Sequence to fold (404 residues):
Amino acid sequence: MNNPPDVSPDPTEHEEYAHNVAAHRNRYLIVGGILLFATGLTVALSYVDFGSRKLNIAVAMIVATFKVGLVAAIFMHLAAEKRLIYRVLLFTGLFVFALFWLTFLAWYDPVSR
Amino acid sequence: MEIPYTVSNRPDTGLWNAKIGIWLFLASEVMLFGGLFSAYIFLRIDSPAGLWPHGLLNVPVGTMNTAILIASSVTVVLAWAALKMRKYNAYWWWMLVTILCGITFLAVKLAYEWPQKFEHFGAFIKPSALEKYEPYLGNHHLEEKGLPQRMEITGHLHNHEALHDPNIKEYEIALDPVNADPANPAMDRPHFFYVPPTDKIAKIDKADVERAGMFTPDHSTYFATYFTITGLHGLHVLGGVLVFLYMWLPVSKKVYQRNPEHLANRVEVSGLFWHFVDLVWIFVFPLFYLL
Fold:
């Protein structure tokens, strides 16, 4: 086999490694619980009148962004990832920003407005 | 031929190949869904008052599906952790639960939510005829409260042939509660639980209707964006389930026996895809079901 596993075959070392993974497992369960709670919160808040629909949308999007942040940071391991992946995501972020900015620019379209 | 760097890190990138591959793929997926979401924002912001519907989707069912997807995100990461701890049996069970969650999500969408929409009917009334249908629209009441007016009458269509036969001059609709009792303050905001159409029948002249149809993508901008985005999302769920199924079947146990870390890495990258699918749904759910 050309590709050695990145986990040491030494049983004692692997035991320590497995112990670390086991500790992470509890964190995943807690994050899952928080996400379910936040889903209930999103539903409940959508029935609260914040005065304008725009404000209701803003509140729901803040909760959704928090949930997405948790999924990305913990489940997708972005809280501690290799630098190259952050670089890829930096460019993705820039392009997404540009995409949404185009939508915003449409408000200043001299032809249709 | 041996494919290199499926387990060990490539010296120049510092990552095993599939890891960088899935992130590049997810970057393209962000742009794909980003395009659709920006189109949604564009269309919604420009939508005239009263023409963007609220409360047409079943909120408890949508909430349940959201919970199912979140639960499956937890189980897939637990499946991966089990592989890392070299507990194949635990991995097998967590993966099975993940697959079942994905199938349940799809089944609810395709066998219940979408068909229920296809059986529902709505007719947008011409602005000049809004007054004639005031008993079903309740716009005087809404105006007093400063709420956007209603332009559409919805419910179950009794005479389906009216959709295609030009000789039939009117639609017969069993009204939704909101149109059966439009001035009731309880109808000002959408209900949490789905309430089926009432026994109250309304007859609507085709001449007074701007456009009408079942709740299909051509019904309105709202349903066009809803079916496009949830349809594409559903295809992603299906893709994820098929990949997970492959990794759950005995064929993948051979990979595990050869090198357990190789299977763990496969589960990790497919799990990353699955979390992304979950992440998209976290935005879809409030935008379409609640707001």
